[in-house]
Amino acid sequence: MIDSTSMIKVKDLVRKYGEVTAVDSVSFEIAPGEIVGLLGHNGAGKTTLMRILTSYLPATSGEVLIGGKDVRENSLAVRRKIGYLPETPPLYPDMNVRDFLAYAARLKDAPAADVDRVLAECDLADAADKVIGTLSKGFKQRVGIAQAILNDPELLILDEPTSGLDPVQVRQVRKLITNLKEKRTVLLSTHVLSEIEHMAQRVLIIKAGKIIADESLNTLLTGAEGEQEIVIRMNGDGDDAVRKIRDLRLPGVETIEVRKLQQSLESVFIKLNE
Amino acid sequence: MNKIIAIAKKELAAFFKSPTAAIVLVVTISAFNVFFYLIIGERKEASLHEVFKVMEFFFIFIIPVLTMGVFSEEKRSGTMEFLMTTPTTNTEIVIGKFLGSLGFFSVLMGITLVYYPILEFFGSPDRLAMLSGYVGLWLEGALFIAIGLLASSLTQSQLIAAIVSYAILFTLYFSTVFTKSLSGSSEDLLAALTTASHSQNFAVGLITPVDLTYYLAGIVACIFLARVHIENRALE
Q: Which of A58, A93, A108 sits opposite B87 (nearest CB)?
């Protein structure tokens, strides 16, 4: 069934490498304009899943529709809709930034003027004439993102966009992605948990090829299974707390309230992976 | 077509930035010049027939070096994933890369065209034989490049790609010596497959449909197999 309202629709997707199942009966849908984080350990199946979505890898079975089009049957049409940043930025070290983007623009049927737009959008104008091989990792990542947004794709698929960058570069790339997401659907993978908290509205957690959580970030962090804690305000010495709680009738306890504990995404993730 | 041209231009530009290709170009042209001088000086003939043979022999060694990285380097560096996720067909990718390599090879061949006015100055060469000789040599180079591209599509390692294409070219070129130990239809078959039996006709001014078909079919077959292979690599 084709659901034209979904930007990405994945149904019962399986991908095997020989005996190993890298993606195991995965189903999910992403609506246009959603920013979704794909979270998982290294080797959980994030990259394989993204490669299937971009039509680089065929699925063993299952259905993948991008903007209502099947990735295998309408591979070229699907590729026109997608801007993809692979895990390793796909760059030619001996080309300069502008030449590379002009080359990528031709392959993506983008107008030549688009090169200047993405240079500006990724804050690369000053580096346009530099040879890619001489750029820092953060700049290379921005060039990788710049090629992904050529021809203004409806869907951005970013595989580990901030991996291996220093904190300043991470912040720059994060800001760039935050600006990009204004008008597009974005699926970004990471194993850096804070990335998702900063950028995504919804989280898919993948473990050993299976989606083990698919929630909005809010629900996931304050979910029904959230732990409860008893907050005890005390006049006395904090070090006595444990002993005093054991003895329920101890004086000095002013209020006891029960409230939901806001979990960190990290703790949710670790718990789900246990 | 635009994408084929874009890929071919990018490939050609990459050759001119590559130290390996620059060394190959300089060394090959220098060697050709030395052989041209020696052969023409000794034979006192205004003909490139013998020079063509030397060039052909050189191609076995230089073309694997030129083509070894065409696909294998893209695979190793991850840019293959970029190429194959743009709305570009695999056929466009392979043909573009073939034309880029052929472009660089044509530059190399173009430099040797200077031999023609030299011969014209000192003697009266058979212009038709020289022209057909160049056509034959260029077609042979194109076939060797297609074979090199196919080898490069098989692996991530430039070294393995070079060795594989060198082994194929060497077999294709030298298997002619085995025809002497064969007879009948197997001799004919082997003779039909070796490059030497086809390039010789061009060198003496003979352009036959059989020889043209041999080269063109070989080129198309290799391009087709390379295309199949990059598709299958993605399946792994």
A: A108
By Cβ distance, the residue of A17, A51, A76 closest to B87 is: A76
Residue A210 included in any domain: yes
Contact of A108 with chain B, judged by CB distance below 8 Å, is answered with yes
Residues of A in contact with B12 (CB under 8 A): none
Helices (H), A122-254: 137-148, 167-180, 193-199, 217-221, 241-246
Q: Which residue segment(s) compose the domain that A262 sits in?
A: 228-272
Q: Quick one: tokens of A198? A: 């900063």
Is the minimum CB–CB distance between B84 and chain A shorter than 8 Å?
Answer: yes
- When divided into structural domains, chain A yields a total of 2
What φ, ψ does residue A159 adopt, rounded to 5°?
A: -95, 110
Question: pLDDT for A200-241, tens place per residue?
Answer: 888 899 988 898 888 888 787 776 555 555 565 555 555 566
Q: Which two tokens stand for residue B218?
A: 């070989």
Q: Is the dihedral of CA B45, B48, B49, B52 positive or negative?
A: positive
Percentage of chain B lying above the pLDDT 90 cut: 40
From CA A260, how far away is CA A270, in angstroms rounded?
A: 19
- CA distance between the termini of chain B: 29
Q: Which residues of A touch B234 (CB under 8 A)?
A: 56-58
Whether residues A192 and A236 share a domain: the answer is no
Is residue A1 in a domain?
Answer: no
Is A2 part of a structural domain of the chain?
no
On whether both A166 and A239 belong to a single domain, the answer is no
Rg (CA), chain A: 23
Q: Is residue A94 part of a domain?
A: yes
A72 touches chain B (CB under 8 A): no
| A27-84: pLDDT as tens digits | 999 998 888 999 888 888 899 999 999 998 888 899 999 988 999 888 999 999 999 9
- Has this prediction a pTM greater than 0.90? no
Measure CA A48 to chain center: 14
In which band, very low, low, confident or very high, does the pLDDT at A2 lie, cut at 50, 70 and 90? very low
